[in-house]
């Protein structure tokens, strides 16, 4: 047999490239805390950890705590969490880099997110994002030169009946438009007090992170915020009640006889029809074939 020539070893690099901007260890990133900051963080961490039967379960709120301190995650914050919870730096980093709420770059005073998932995008979310990119002169994940606004695409806010939806430090701004979005960020940059559509009054990103770490929001009127389900959210519930629809009783067998009242209530004209093609107008307009299919024989 002929000996096969040995090939050169191949280096496979895992994770982000060294030149990517989302590095925990980056120039200027905090690598340690002064003694007075450490003492304050340890006092807060003791409160958080005491809420859990296993200390490592406190990792998520502790990451919010150090993010409240630094505005993002830093090597100092990772080391602090690993020391408090007796975890390795790799274990803490694996969690910290998994969730999008933990940032690896400095964050502005206000984290402005525009939902660009399907429904919000169709209703104008993409247009809002484009308008804000031009207006603020930043891209997704970027922060304005004055450090006020960090702009991001965000995933579904579970508020589709208010689409398109924006969030500022996780508070809702419903039924947004490119114009209202520009007015919103201009107000934030000027220092004007801004009130969300529903939810607590706005506070800074770092203050929000401390609240997410599990500490009380003691601001005046913070607990007086109101909000409720939108009209579209309740449409399905109203329909079910009007047609006496209900879920099968617990423990019912699959072959039990349950009348399909939903099928009986569905209009004969649309029950077996295919879904309509995409509308020529976005969003679809009422009294069109997209929203009101013709009856049989027409």
Structure description:
This protein has 298 residues and is an alpha+beta fold. Helix 1 runs antiparallel to helix 2, helix 2 packs antiparallel against helix 3 and helix 3 crosses helix 4. The radius of gyration is 26 Å and the shape is globular.
- Strand runs, count: 4
> What can be said about the biggest beta sheet?
4 strands, mixed
- Global mean pLDDT: 82
As residue ranges, the low-confidence spans are none
Helix content: 25-40%
| Structural class by secondary-structure content | alpha+beta
Q: Trace the largest sheet across and list its strands.
A: 2-1-3-4
What global shape is seen?
globular
**Cα distance spanning the termini:** 80 Å
Number of helices: 10
Estimated radius of gyration: 26 Å
Percentage of β-strand residues: 5-15%
Order of helices and strands: HHHHEHEEEHHHHH
For the structure shown, list the relevant keywords.
298 residues; alpha+beta; four-stranded mixed beta sheet; 4 strands
Task: Give a nutshell description of this structure.
It contains ten helices and four strands.
Helices and strands in order:
Elements: H1 35-49, H2 59-70, H3 75-85, H4 89-96, E1 110-115, H5 118-136, E2 149-154, E3 166-168, E4 171-173, H6 178-190, H7 205-212, H8 235-242, H9 261-265, H10 268-271
Parallel strand pairs: 1-2
Antiparallel strand pairs: 1-3, 3-4
Helix pairs in contact: 1-2, 2-3, 2-7, 3-4, 5-6
């Amino acid at each position: 047999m002929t000996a096969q020539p040995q090939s050169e070893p191949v280096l496979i690099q895992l994770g982000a490239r060294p030149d990517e901007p989302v590095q925990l260890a980056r120039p200027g990133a905090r690598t340690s805390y002064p003694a007075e900051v450490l003492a304050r963080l340890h006092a807060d961490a003791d409160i958080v950890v005491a809420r859990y039967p296993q200390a490592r379960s406190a990792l998520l709120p502790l990451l919010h705590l150090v993010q409240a301190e630094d505005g993002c995650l830093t090597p100092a914050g990772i080391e602090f969490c690993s020391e408090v919870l007796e975890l390795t730096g790799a274990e803490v980093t694996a969690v910290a880099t998994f969730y999008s709420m933990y940032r690896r770059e400095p964050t502005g005073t206000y984290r402005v997110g525009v939902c660009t998932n399907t429904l919000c995008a169709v209703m104008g979310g993409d247009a809002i994002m484009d308008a804000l990119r031009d207006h603020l002169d930043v891209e997704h994940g970027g922060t304005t030169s004055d450090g006020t606004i960090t702009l991001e695409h965000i995933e579904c806010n579970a508020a589709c009946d208010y689409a398109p939806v924006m969030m500022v430090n996780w508070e809702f701004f419903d039924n947004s438009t490119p114009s209202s979005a520009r007015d919103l960020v201009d107000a934030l940059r000027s220092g004007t007090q801004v009130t969300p559509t529903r939810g607590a009054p706005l506070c800074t990103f770092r203050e929000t992170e401390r609240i997410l770490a599990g500490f009380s929001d003691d601001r005046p009127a913070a607990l007086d915020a109101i909000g409720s389900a939108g009209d579209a959210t309740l449409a399905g519930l109203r329909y079910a009640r009007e047609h006496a629809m209900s879920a099968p009783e617990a423990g019912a067998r699959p072959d039990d006889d349950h009348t399909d009242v939903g099928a009986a209530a569905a209009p004969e004209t649309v029950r077996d029809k295919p879904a309509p093609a995409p509308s020529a107008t976005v969003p679809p307009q009422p009294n069109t074939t997209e929203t009101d299919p013709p009856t049989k024989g027409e």
